[in-house]
């Protein structure tokens, strides 16, 4: 007797994952906003498909069906999302399949590399003489350094406040 690969145990099939058209458009719109902000396109689409799915997680096969994308594209996207700690992969019981799930508080993962803001502020403050204060370029670089120094100071407070409100 061979087991049905669409079953997570001996009795329960893996549910179909295709969203209704309104949900699909909504998820695509959110993914488009992330892409416009610099997030890679396919990881943005995968993230929004997972986020808007009524299921706790989706397999690569389901993501491929939902997004009408190749398995290779899905594989690259989930690797990227795992690397930035936005999703996790769990084994589907009694199969070799993985179920991808959005990590709780995933949106703060983009803020967790706070040292980046400090590094940008410090590096920007170490400008060469050609970018001295009083020059147009120097003022732009100073403003960038000030902005990232501000973020470096304020993010701990903002994250703490967010966690207390959750």
From TrEMBL:
Coiled coil: none annotated. It holds the Pfam family MarR_2. Keywords: DNA-binding, Transcription, Transcription regulation. Gene3D superfamilies: HR1 repeat (1.10.287.160), Winged helix-like DNA-binding domain superfamily/Winged helix DNA-binding domain (1.10.10.10). The keyword DNA-binding applies. Residues 38-85 form the HTH marR-type domain. The keyword Transcription regulation applies. SUPFAM superfamilies: Winged helix' DNA-binding domain (SSF46785). Residues 1-23 are annotated as: Disordered. This is MarR family transcriptional regulator.
């Amino acid at each position: 007797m061979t087991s049905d690969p669409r079953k997570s145990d001996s009795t329960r099939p893996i549910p179909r994952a295709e969203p209704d058209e309104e949900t699909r458009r909504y998820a695509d719109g959110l993914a488009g906003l992330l892409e416009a902000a610099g997030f890679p396109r396919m990881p943005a689409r995968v993230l929004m498909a997972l986020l808007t799915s009524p299921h706790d997680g989706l397999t690569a096969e389901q993501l491929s069906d939902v997004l009408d994308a190749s398995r290779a594209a899905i594989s690259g996207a989930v690797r990227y999302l795992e690397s930035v700690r936005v999703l996790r992969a769990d084994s589907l019981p009694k199969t070799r399949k993985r179920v991808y799930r959005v990590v709780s508080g995933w949106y703060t993962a983009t803020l967790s590399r706070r040292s980046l803001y400090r590094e940008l502020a410090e590096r920007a403050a170490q400008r060469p003489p050609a970018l001295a204060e009083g020059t147009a370029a120097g003022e732009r670089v100073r403003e960038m350094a000030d902005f990232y120094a501000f973020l470096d100071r304020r993010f701990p407070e903002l994250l703490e406040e967010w966690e207390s409100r959750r």
